[in-house]
Amino acid sequence: MTPIVLIGRFAPGEEQLWLDALRRAMPEERLLSCDEVDDPAAVELAIVANPDPDVVRRFPALRWVQSLWAGVERLVAEPAFDRLPIVRMVDPELARIMAEAVLAWTLYLHRNMPAYLAQQRERQWRQLPYVAPAARRIGILGLGVLGQAAAGALLAAGFPVQGWRRAARAAGARDSASAAADRVAVFSGDEELSAMVRQTDLLICLLPLTQHTRHRIDARLLRLLPRGASLINFGRGPVVHTPSLVDALDSGHLAHAVLDVFDEEPLPTTNALWHHPGVTVLPHISADTDPQTASRIVAGNVRHWRATGRIPPAVDRQRGY
Question: Is 253 one of the catalytic residues?
Answer without folding.
Answer: no
